[in-house]
Structure prediction request, 133 residues.
Amino acid sequence: MHSPTCLDQQIEDVGNAQRSAVQSYIRLIFVHLLKITSVTKPELRAKRHGEIARFHSEMTTRFTNAMRQDIDVQGLWQSAFREARFDLRSYGQDITIPPKSPCPFELDDLMVDEFDSEAALARIEPLIPSRAD
Prediction:
C-alpha cells in the first residue's frame, strides 16, 4: 500500500468537486420542479423548464457511477423543499406539497439521456393534497 501523494489528493479533490456539483444540480432540478408545481403564472413556469434542461445537461456530464453510493436523493429532495419554500415565501406564495413528502424519484430517474420535466411534474402532482383526491 502506498502513502497518499499530492497527486492522489488532487484526484480525490476533483472527484469530490464533481460529486458536489452533481448533487447541486439534482437539488436545483428539484427546487425548480417544486416551484413549478406551486406557481400559477405561465411565464414563471415556462422559464423553469429551460433551467431544468440546463441543470440536467450539466449534471449528466459530471456524473459517474462511482458517485452513486454517495448521492442521497431523499436528502437532496428535502433540501430542495426547504429552499423552494423559502424562495416562494419571499414572493408571498407557498409551496403546495406538504413538508416531509417522499421524493418521487430515484437516482436512475434523473440519470437519463433526455429528462422530461413534464413527466417529472406528473410524478409530483399526486403529492399535492388538493390534487391527490
User: Anything to note?
Assistant: Helices lie at 6-38, 42-62, 73-89, 107-110, 117-124, 129-132. Residues 32 and 107 are 17 Å apart (CA to CA).
